[in-house]
Amino acid sequence: MPHGDRLTALDATFLHLEEGGAHMHVASILVFEGEAPPYGELVRAIEDRLRLVPRYRQRLAHVPLGQGRPVWVDDPYFNARYHLRHTALPAPGGDEQLAALAGRLFAQQLDRGKPLWEIYLVEGLHPGAGGDPRFALIAKTHHALVDGVSGVDITSVLFDAVPEPAPAAGPGRRWEPAPLPSAGQLLADALIERVTMPGEAARAFATGMRAPLRLARRFAEPLTGLGAVARLGITPAPASPVNVRIGPHRRYAWIDADLEQFKAIKNALGGTLNDVVLAAVALGLGRWMRRHHHRTEGVVLRAMVPVSVRADAPLGALGNRVAAMYAPLPVGIRDAGTVFDVVHRAMELLKRSGQAVGAQAVTQLADFAPPTILSQAARLQTRQRVFNLVVTNVPGPQVQLYALGRPLRAIYPVVPLPRNTALGIAVMSYHGRLGFGLLGDYDAMADLHDLRDDRAAAIDELARAAGVAPSQAPGGAGQAASRRPRSATGV
User: Fold this and answer.
1) What is the number of other CB atoms lying within 10 angstroms of the CB of residue 405?
2) I need a surface site. Which of 29, 72, 76, 302 has the fewest CB within 10 A?
């Protein structure tokens, strides 16, 4: 009988990609209103709810001789206080100090010998605009454990939808870790699985052949998508200033935007919310590149946009169920309305091309690859420039959330940087707001704050093109979308 759940090929790839300065954890800054809870109280509250996510008490067990992907096993030495850290900001405790702390924490790799997550309770945050006290949680989870979309569902474990905290579960049965499998058991499980999985695939194919028309319909869309993915492989993304060798250190900044403003823009211009996000990214990057005297005329960068394919998975399921689409970013176009039209038309064509389905099919096929081949494929992927940067747009909860009775006011997300990619942009909606999180390599993106301001100005440009009023939202380390960026030559 197998011991523990085995990582999928996609999850294992995130482990292999963690080299050369890359850290493959997703993360977020969660800003709360109110006095920070006592550290011990927070520990007890999260310990009480870990029974709902048993994976958070599990660590990786590696198969001897690399003959199989790692499996999740209970950590017999699990200690919640190791994963829940307590820290404070230096004076004056503003958003810039919070962003600097976040950058340092995001630059630290998670310990592979323990469950792959950490949460920091951050005190010393300066009061908000109304004088109310604030504190923050900074959360990190390895991409092999949870993707950004399912991570939103996991917030139901940590948070309440009402101010009064949910009652404790009571003593119940004490958690007892399952016995660790021996090296021999791990190796035997992996070898048996390698022999039986191709057989399962052959039986499924034989069954499908009994209904040829049904089989044809089932495989037509993935095959079309595989063609789209194959074409990407022979047409690399253009060179750009954000595609350089990265180090281990990070900078972080954010923008706080108004979700209703984005909806008004997409309604006026006739597209989707994701079109507005990608158009703002393209406009902001174009301004930033021209300030650095990089050529933008006729340049179309390529963004890798993760797409959730978790439709049938249970709420709160862990592990990655994502595919990818590759969206154009026309950085050489300066007119906001034109940029939006180009992005919108391109995204419509991509949806019809089946590109995301093809990417999902590739990751499923990789489940049959021996681990050594998978490892080499992951390393090869980091040397190919199929895309210039990652842009995620994750829908979050649209109701007010609370932690220990304290209201959650903002979420600023983080997407990891692959090797040779110095910039990643994550967007998450929450309770009528949009949090744009910009993660940059510390050396390559020394002026990340300028790019942040360019992104904020781009949102205003899109609002004007749509005839929508600029946002008056309060800003943070990224400032509000309404903040005017500093002027610069060539912008």
Assistant:
1) 13
2) 76
CA distances from 411 to 65, 246, 429, 431 (A): 42, 26, 8, 10
Q: Is pLDDT of 382 > 60?
A: no
3-state helix, strand, coil in the chain (%, to 5): 40, 20, 40
Nearest-angstrom CA–CA distance, 16 and 82: 25
- In the three-class reduction of DSSP (H, G, I as helix; E, B as strand; rest coil), residue 23 is classed as coil
For residue 55, what pLDDT is reported? 87
195 residue type, one letter: V
Place of tokens 């595919």: 323
What residues contact residue 134 under an 8 Å CB cut-off, 6+ apart? 31, 32, 33, 34, 125, 126, 127, 128, 409
List, as one string, the DSSP characters of 457-490.
HHHHHHHHHHT-PPP-----TT-BTTPPPPP-TT
**Enclosing H/E stretch for 430:** strand 423-430
Beta bridge partners of 389: 303
Backbone angles phi, psi at 151, to 5 degrees: -60, -30
Q: Is 416 helix (H, G, I), strand (E, B) or coil?
A: coil
At 273, the pLDDT band (50, 70, 90 cuts) reads very high
Residue 208 reports pLDDT greater than 80: no
Report how far residue 75's alpha carbon sits from residue 94's, in angstroms, rounded to the nearest whole number. Answer: 38
Please give the Cα distance from 457 to 143 (Å, whole number): 31
- Among candidate residues 216, 167, 187, 128, the one with its CA nearest the CA of residue 410: 128
